[in-house]
């Protein structure tokens, strides 16, 4: 059974720092991995999608990497800003499930202090 | 603007009173699904739809119904809501079925069943 874990559960950093969020999954048989951002009480905004054949994806100050064999992904945020404060969720699309569901981690709550 | 919309955004109801949460996407996506998000349990898939008139159960379908009569709409129906269905609900869509690309999420519907 696929399980997704995100560590740490919460992170507080001063503005301007570069930071890394971690995501691990137990089964390497995945189609893809997606990183989302969720603001309090709000919906999920897709940040980056990495297909299983890819190693990384970049969008602006964000860079996500995928090491499928070790079951790990990282989300790197450069030069963090207070507006980056949110909960970050990673989710994998398992290969075995044809229903297309995503299996989510519990999230990392990020706070960037001015 | 390409988006997934949900209505209502907030709803308070009483046990047993039938309700429908609507979901609509304007991206001509084939795949749509519903999730619920609960503290400590994360996001779990309720139902999904591969195309018009094709729906199937996710991980937590009990107490819910769906229909997909048109490609753009995927309503979630609670025939007889109970307090354990109090949750934050998200609709998602993706271009292909099963989804190979980014899954886009709606803004969420917060439901309280008294």
Q: How is the main sheet of chain A built?
A: 6 strands, mixed
The H-and-E topology of chain B, N to C, reads as: EEEEEEEEEEE
| Distance separating the two termini of chain B | 36 Å
Helix content bin of chain A: under 10%
Number of strands of chain A: 11
As residue ranges, the low-confidence spans of chain B are none
**Which secondary-structure class do the elements of chain A indicate?**
mainly beta
Q: Report the span from N to C terminus of chain A.
A: 41 Å
Q: What is the alpha-carbon Rg of chain A in Å?
A: 14 Å
Give a short synopsis of this structure.
The complex is a heterodimer of chains A (114) and B (114). Chain A has 114 residues and is mainly beta. Chain A has strands at residues 4-7, 10-14, 19-25, 30-38, 44-51, 56-59, 62-67, 72-77, 86-94, 103-104, 108-113.
How does this model look, in words?
The complex is a heterodimer of chains A (114) and B (114). By secondary structure, chain A is an all-beta fold. Chain A has strands at 4-7, 10-14, 19-25, 30-38, 44-51, 56-59, 62-67, 72-77, 86-94, 103-104, 108-113. In chain A, strands 2, 4, 5, 9, 10 and 11 form a six-stranded mixed sheet that branches. In chain A, strand 7 and strand 8 (72-77) form a beta hairpin. Chain A starts with a strand and ends with a strand. Chain B is mainly beta and 114 residues long. Helix content of chain B is 0%, strand content 50%. Chain B is built from no helices and eleven strands. Chain B has strands at residues 4-7, 10-13, 19-25, 31-38, 42-51, 54-57, 65-66, 76-78, 87-94, 104-105, 109-113. In chain B, strands 2, 4, 5, 6, 9, 10 and 11 form a seven-stranded mixed sheet that branches. Chain B has a four-stranded antiparallel sheet with strand order 1-3-8-7, with no helix packed on it. In chain B, strand 5 (42-51) and strand 6 (54-57) form a beta hairpin. Chain B is globular and about 35 Å long. Chains A and B meet through strand 4, strand 5 and strand 9 of A and strand 5, strand 9 and strand 10 of B.
